[in-house]
Recover the amino acids of this structure.
């Protein structure tokens, strides 16, 4: 059945016509109109969003808001937060927001209030954290655990990795020494390194996998298990002890955890209604809680909840996630800007771009609508990023003088280092922070104005000219704290949802990754058995035979 796609709606058509009048207007020209900064910047939940460097005017935003209403964004937000089955291809709700509801809240899904179970899991996490921090979680030989290794990939790795790194300043000091590490790659690179350095007696593995079938994680887990057993087991009985003292499982499948041998008391469960890339807020966040303590983990949840409330309650025109989403839609669908760079100016956000790459591209990298039709418009842009100051010395050349139009998000804390105790160090570090902010603001300014940013714009050869006109958003955090980080992540989660609503796609499934997994299993069989290679295409055959030949040398 053919349905009317959003690009046929008058609101979309109006934007298309409007884009024709805007396309040739340079950002420098737009900035000759006063009042852009107050008009296009908004604050909520500890964040400040400056959208004035987008290539739009009031009229543009009004039309985009009409589009959001036409696409049913307000109703979709209400459905998402109420726990309706918004993930239609998998027929389930997407309730990451329930993971950060306060204990006194109520959210009934399929006749059951989910909040008590959410908080029961948080309490179990708190108990594990308490034991580890008190030096009471002991390995099989009785020594307290000193290293925790999270084995997981995708959503079961990137969220905890990104947040633990971002909040490293919040590591509790008065605890038994404990380091948290992450191993994700199926080739075993990270794990192999840990196994040469860590003491098996004091190493605890957290097996994080929503499905508990992901080969990347299970192959790392098997290697870790063999390593422990070969070092710690003397008699038969010890195997159970090692299994019990050195493995925690986090999954939506308790049966599979049990099959693998995770002791029941070491199983932390979450639910099918939490998507993998939206899962850091519950049991998958255990490594975060171990790294920064349960109080800080709960503060992260509170920050995200503050953004959830803003998302639910604010009018569309002052709703941060909605505005961020509309800027992306405007660039992508109307100005043909299909590359998006994420540029944090804070070393603690080193893994933020990788995290958003999964969040945005696995969620909205889709080309079929919720009605099963191919979209006629473009959806998720190519999104990538790196720490801004380092990227300045790597790919900013392309941003300034390349041929691609790119939208950028600059992210920075307004205040940093003012709590460093030593006075001289504090002064130097605060200067470094100021330098970093200056670079952040300078880059977005040059990207916007191009040559006009230069006071003395005398004659210059063309290779020294700057085109400018690259749109950007700047997100400022008061400070980088558990609360503001929670709010920042929730901002992007909701942005993704709003865009998906407008594009009429499902941001909560990821069928596109399934075929690759299936073919990999078949390919591994061929590689190992040396049978069936003739049925493959010429390139795959050539590559496999080259490996066999190398192995025989
Ligand atoms: O292959 C993609 C994916 O399913 C992601 O969506 C998910 O975050 C990741 O793999 C890990 O999955 P799991 O948590 O089930 O091991």
């Amino acid at each position: 059945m053919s349905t009317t796609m959003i690009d046929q709606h008058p609101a979309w058509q109006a934007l298309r016509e409007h884009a024709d009048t805007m396309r040739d207007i340079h950002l420098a020209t737009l900035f000759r109109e006063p009042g852009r900064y107050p008009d296009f910047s908004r604050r909520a939940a500890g964040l400040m969003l400056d959208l004035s460097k987008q290539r739009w005017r009031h009229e543009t935003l009004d039309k985009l808001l009409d589009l959001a209403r036409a696409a049913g964004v307000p109703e979709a937000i209400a459905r998402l937060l109420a726990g309706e089955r918004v993930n239609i291809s998998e027929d389930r709700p997407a309730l990451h927001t329930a993971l950060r509801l306060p204990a006194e809240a109520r959210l009934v899904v399929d006749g059951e209030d989910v909040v008590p179970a959410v908080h029961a899991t948080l309490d179990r996490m708190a108990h594990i954290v308490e034991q580890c921090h008190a030096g009471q979680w002991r390995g099989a030989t009785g020594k307290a655990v000193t290293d925790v290794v999270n084995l997981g990939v995708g959503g079961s790795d990137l969220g905890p990795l990104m947040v633990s790194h971002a909040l490293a300043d919040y590591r509790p000091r008065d605890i038994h020494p404990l380091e948290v590490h992450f191993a994700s790659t199926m080739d075993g690179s990270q794990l192999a390194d840990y196994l040469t350095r860590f003491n098996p007696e004091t190493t605890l593995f957290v097996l994080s996998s929503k499905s508990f079938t992901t080969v990347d994680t299970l192959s790392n887990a098997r290697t870790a298990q063999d390593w422990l057993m070969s070092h710690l087991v003397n008699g038969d009985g010890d195997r159970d002890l090692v299994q019990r003292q050195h493995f925690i499982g986090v999954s939506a499948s308790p049966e599979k955890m049990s099959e693998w041998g995770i002791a029941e008391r070491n199983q932390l469960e979450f639910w099918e209604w939490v998507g993998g890339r939206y899962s850091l807020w519950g049991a998958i966040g255990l490594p975060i809680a171990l790294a920064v303590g349960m109080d800080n983990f709960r503060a992260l949840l509170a920050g995200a909840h503050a953004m959830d409330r803003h998302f639910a309650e604010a009018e569309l025109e002052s709703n941060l996630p909605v505005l961020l989403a509309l800027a992306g839609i405007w660039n992508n669908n109307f100005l043909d800007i299909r590359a998006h760079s994420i540029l944090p100016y804070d070393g603690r956000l080193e893994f933020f771009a990788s995290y958003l790459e999964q969040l945005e591209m696995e969620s909205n990298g889709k080309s079929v609508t919720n009605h099963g039709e191919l979209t006629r418009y473009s959806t998720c842009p190519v999104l990538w990023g790196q720490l801004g100051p380092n990227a300045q010395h790597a790919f900013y050349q392309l941003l300034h003088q390349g041929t691609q139009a790119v939208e950028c998000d600059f992210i920075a804390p307004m205040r940093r280092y003012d709590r460093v105790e030593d006075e001289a160090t504090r002064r130097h570090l605060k200067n470094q922070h100021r330098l970093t902010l200056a670079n952040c603001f300078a880059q977005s300014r040059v990207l916007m104005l191009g040559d006009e940013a230069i006071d003395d714009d005398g004659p210059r050869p063309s290779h020294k000219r700057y085109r400018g006109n690259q749109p950007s958003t700047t997100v400022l955090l008061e400070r980088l704290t558990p609360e503001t980080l929670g709010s920042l992540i929730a901002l992007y989660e909701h942005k993704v949802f709003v865009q998906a609503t407008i594009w009429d796609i499902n941001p909560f499934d990821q069928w596109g990754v399934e075929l690759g997994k299936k073919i990999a299993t078949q390919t591994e069989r061929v590689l190992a058995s040396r049978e069936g290679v003739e049925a493959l295409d010429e390139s795959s055959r050539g590559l496999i035979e080259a490996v066999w030949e190398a192995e025989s040398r």
Notes: The first helix runs from residue 10 to 22. The first strand starts at residue 41 and ends at 44.
